[in-house]
Write a structure and sequence with these properties.
This protein folds into 2 domains: about 50 residues, no CATH class; about 80 residues, no CATH class. Helix content is about 25%, strand content about 30%. Strands 4-3-2-1-5 form a 5-stranded antiparallel beta sheet, with no helix packed on it. α1 crosses α2. The protein is elongated and about 65 Å long.
């Protein structure tokens, strides 16, 4: 079994199998969709598609955060509410790359005579919904209220 590289999502794996089947068909070799799934599993070092499917499908986002979900929390110490518009599993499934769109832009600069507003951010959170990166006073950049 493949243990060295993180696996793509199930949707990405199925898309790879479709492309493999289409490429083979263009070159005169017709195979079934199930055969293309099996070939892909073998290429990735798995016994069969079922084993690959189980390995790739056993990932959960932090506290079941889902694409399109409403979230709230703090970003750089400021409260926000917004939508999850992107989510991707990182590494072994213990971190997640999120793209968040805030309802209201947040000023990310604390200097009084200058402002820089952000409404859409990318961040990497752990299962507890916190970033590993911290501000100078030791608070995580982002904390989701889970």
């Amino acid at each position: 079994m493949n243990g060295s590289k993180p696996l793509p999502s199930l949707a990405a794996l199925k898309e790879q199998a479709k492309r493999l089947r289409a490429d083979l068909e263009e070159n005169g070799t017709t195979i079934s969709h199930s055969r293309s799934l099996e070939l892909l599993a073998h290429q990735l070092g798995f016994k069969d598609w079922n084993t690959l499917h189980a390995s790739a499908g056993n990932r959960r986002p932090p506290s079941s955060i889902m694409l399109g979900e409403r979230v709230r929390g703090t970003y750089l110490g400021q409260a926000f509410e917004g939508d999850v518009i992107g989510i991707r599993t990182m590494g072994a499934g213990d971190r997640y790359r999120l793209t968040l769109h805030f309802d209201e832009p947040i000023d990310v600069v604390t200097f009084d005579s200058f402002s820089a507003f952000r409404q859409r951010i990318n961040c990497t959170v752990d299962r507890s919904g916190q970033t590993a990166e911290k501000t100078s006073d030791g608070r995580p950049h982002l904390v989701l209220n889970l």
